[in-house]
Structure formats: C-alpha cells, structure tokens
Amino acid sequence: MTKIDYETTAKLIENQMTSLLKIIDLENNRKKVKVDGFRIKYFPSNNRRLNERMKNQSLGKVMDKKKIGYQDIEAICRFEPRIKFIQKQLQSILKIGEFTFEGHHVFVNGFRLKNLRHWVSTDGEDENHGDPYSDILQYLSWPCTTSCKFCLHKGDPPGYFSKSKYSWITPLNEIETRIKYWDPENNQALFNKSDYNFFEILTHPHFFSIAMKARKKTNRCFNIVTGGAQLTESMINSLEQLKPLFLIVSLNSHDPRIRQSVMRDKNPNIAIYSLSSLKKRKIPFAVSLTACQEIPLESLKETLIHVDRTNPYFIRVVLDAYTKYHPIALDIKKSLERWKKIVRLVRDIRKKLQSPLIVQPVMFEECFFDSKRNRTKVEGVIKNSPAYKAGMRAGDKIVSINGIQILSRPFAKYLLWLCAKGGMREIEITAKRQRQLFTFKLKKSYQEDYPYFPYKRSAPIFFPYGLVLLHGLNPFDVLEIEKIAEKFNAKKILFLSSLLVKPSLKEYVRSLNLFKDKDVKLYIEVPINRHFLGGDIIVGDLLVVDDFIASVREWITRNSCKPDLVIIPSTPFTKWKRDLKGEVYKNIERELGIPVALIECARIFNIN
What we know:
Layout: H1 3-20, E1 24-28, E2 31-32, E3 37-40, E4 48-49, H2 73-76, H3 81-96, E5 97-101, E6 104-106, E7 110-113, E8 120-122, H4 132-135, H5 172-180, E9 188-190, H6 207-215, E10 222-226, H7 233-239, E11 245-250, H8 256-263, H9 269-280, E12 285-290, H10 297-308, E13 315-318, H11 332-349, E14 357-360, H12 364-369, E15 380-381, H13 386-390, E16 397-401, E17 404-405, H14 409-421, E18 426-433, E19 436-443, E20 467-468, H15 475-488, E21 492-496, H16 502-511, E22 521-525, H17 545-559, E23 565-569, H18 586-592, E24 596-599
C-alpha cells in the first residue's frame, strides 16, 4: 500500500467512525472498550489518532455470532435494518484495520446502541406498540415445562430461530431497559426484535418482578398466553395482583390421558382444573384447542362441551399446520380434508354452546363453507356482555349500527370499535335472523359482568359490546388495486393472494365492478409456501420473497407472457418491507424485471 493509498483509506475510516461513534459504543465480550485511534493492517508503522471528540467512546451488539449475550443481527434486521448497516460498516473496517487505545491494539467483537431514545418508535411504525405483551411480556419467553408434539417451534427452519440452545432467551437487563423506554400511554417503545420468539412466560424466574414493573407504568390489560401447566392455585393467587389481565390457556384436551400424551404434561390436571379457579377469581380467559391428528374428533367434541361449562370468554379451535421441517410434516391435500372434518364438527356444535367458538385461521371456515364471503355474520356473543343481554345470538347478520347501513364485516368491526372508544353507553343494532329483522339496544353498564371485560385497548382480543366479528377482507383495500393500476398504467396485472383470501377477493372484484369498461385484465394467483416454511402452511402472511418470485415465473410459463405489474399485499412484510428471512420485497422486482407494488392493508388477525 502506498502512502497515498494509506492516507485515503485512513481518512475514509476516520470519517466512518466519527459518524458511527455518535450512535454506538464498541465492546469486547460485552464489556465497553475505549478507542482513540486505529491502524491499517500490514502497515504497522502508522497509527492514526481519531478525532479528539471520539476519545473514551465505545459500543456493543453482534460482531462475533458465537459470543453468548449478543443479539442475532439477522433476526433484528426485519424490524430495524439500520442495525445491520452498522454491523456491515464495522466489519468492513475490521477487514483492513484495527482499533487502538493509547497505541495498543483493542479487540472489538460487538457494539451497543448509545442513545436508545433515538431508537424508540411509535404505533405508526409498529401497530402493536402500547400493548404490554408485545412490548414487554413476550421477552420473558422461557423454556416450557411441557413438550407439545405439535409445537410450531419444532418446525423452525434451520438457523432461523434457535441457532443454539436457548440462545433466544432475552437477558434480564435488556428487558428492564425495554421497560425504561416504554411509554404505553403514547404507544411508544423500542423496536421489536422478533415476532416469533415466544414459548412460556409464566416459567420465567423473574416473571412477577418484571410484570409488576410493567404494571406500574400502565393499567392496560395484560394478555398472557400459557400452556396451563403453571396455573396452580398459588400461581393464580399471584396473577390476581396483575389485574386487569386476560389469559389464553392452551388446554388442547380435558382428558388427562390425551393432554399428557400430546403435550407430555407430567401433571395434566393442573391446567384442566385451572379453568374453574380462573372462573372463581373472575379472571377472564379463553381456551385454545389445537386439533392435532392424535386427538379423536369425538374427544374434541367432549372437550368443547366441558370447556363451555367453565364460562370462557371464547373458545378457539386451531387447525394444526406444520412446516416441512417438522417431524409431523403433512401434505396440504390431506390436511385440507382433515381440517374440513374439524370445521364440520365445530359448525355442528356451535349453536349448542353458550361460549363463542372460533376456528383459526379465522378465514378458513368462510373460505370453504360459506357460499357468500365477508358477510356481517356474528360469529358469537360473549356471555353477560351488552350484546348477550340484549338478546343477540351467533349467526345474526348485522344490517345497521345506529342507523348506518353495514355492507362489510370490517366496516362493522371498525364502527363498533369507534363507538366503544368514544365511550358510547348505548348503541342500536338492526340484525337479520332467519329472514326476519330485529332491533337490539346494546347498553353498557359501569360494572360489566364476568366473563365480559370492557378493555378497549386489548385488540385483537377485545370484542366491543361482546359481539364476536372475525376479521375479513376490507373492500376499500380492494379498490386500491384500481388506483395502483392507473399509477403504473398497467393493462395486465398479476395479483398474488393467499388461498384463504382469494375467494373473498374475487367476489369483491366482481361486486365492485373493478376495471369496468377498461381494457385491463386482473389475474389472481396463489403462491405456494415452499421456499422457506413449506409443509401445509397456507397463511399468506408467512410467504417470503422467493415464494413470490417462483409464483410469477410459473404464471409466465403457463401463460406465455409477462404481466405489466405485480401487486402483493403488504402483510407478509414489516414496516421496512422485509419478509420472514429479512429480504426486501424490491428483490422481486430486481429478479423479474417487472414492476412490483405493495398494496397497504391490515393483517387479517388470528386470535393470538
């Protein structure tokens, strides 16, 4: 290296580090290190002093992936890709130089963000900000005491989630830091580092101390998902101190032998008897039943009847699905037939139960069993809620709310949410039941009766006035397709949907007269989830960039032509437009040479 090359390189590094050290500190094995200079490798006679204002500064995150305690950059970059950019900058510098302090080499293998207030985001950037579980409690995820045969994490793609045993456990000091910068009342928090890292939080050794610190900052409802094995009388006594809270108990079977078999629960009666204790303490809860193939349908039916007697807020039946990496990996065609048998059982028993009964994924039942989609059908009514007391029932179809005509389920949900948020204590609903119209006055009392709970900020679990309406396709989102087409002046449009949404989308395209009297053709294709998760996964939000690329190429081959434009819903991507693998959606456009547009829309929530 000549002296001119050295000076140029040194100046470049100085400029880079001057900028970087304003936002990060350098670390060695999680200990802050001081740096005041650097030198170019293989040019040892020169030592470049860093700018004076950079002295005594340092940093720490992930440079050496083998170091325990540092976070995985690949997982974080979906939600905060600037961290990845910082890592690449440091790695590029360390390839050609080394840091020094007072003339001696300083080893660096990590970095830490300096001013965390600059890394706080709002609910405009992450819609879940403000929710105690999403912002804080999920990071208490800890190894389960059960080992469910159907556990989704047993199907994690290699290296995606658990690169090493328990490497996903969040350090206690990080959780406390998150609480420090958490502002639930203004829906602000530090950026998320994962949307896929929860096991059991009630097993965490510091669960109550952390939960109590979070409780001091908000009176919002704590939504807790649990396998139920920890719900002893003592645990439930302690949970009472955290009210208001809401539990989703993954019971799966009321038969001790079956629960013990499918969940490997050493003491299955703890979870089974916990439902009565929760009811006694008036802690609202929902019950989750994963309808895995080892549970006979008759046993599922008996469990539904048993659970209904405990007055749950609602019951959900989960259609189990597995990635290609899971030991139970199944074929989609066989799974569809089995799922349909489960839904037939649910539809048969639903009207015999008092508790709302939901199938998850929430659009599966409508997609395969209803002749008309996105109807304003009431899926269920929460017991003792204003809707329940007014006489509304599952199956009622909402016609109007306070005189406003309702044409779609998303609009009905939104209007009910607005009424509840505005504190309206009485609303009037006109509904159709067996071809007859009925008018109901839903009145909210100041003290609601168990199991209904009026926490406005607990979406998607909160059902205003006790009316259980599932998410659906928003017609206003469908109308955006026409606007996007005009923007790109496209005549041949390929829309990449999902198996569950496609029927509703086709129905709306027809009923809304999209592209009427225009020389535009809209094609709807369903990509197959095979490049990342595979198996029998059919939820579109779990598709990745490679799935979309493959789908477009297959369509081109079949049709012997290229589309002018590819449109994809935004829901498989984060706010930074990155998929589950952290890949940017624009890579679809780069790979295919075809314009790609995202249609901004809300996720069709399952009940978490």
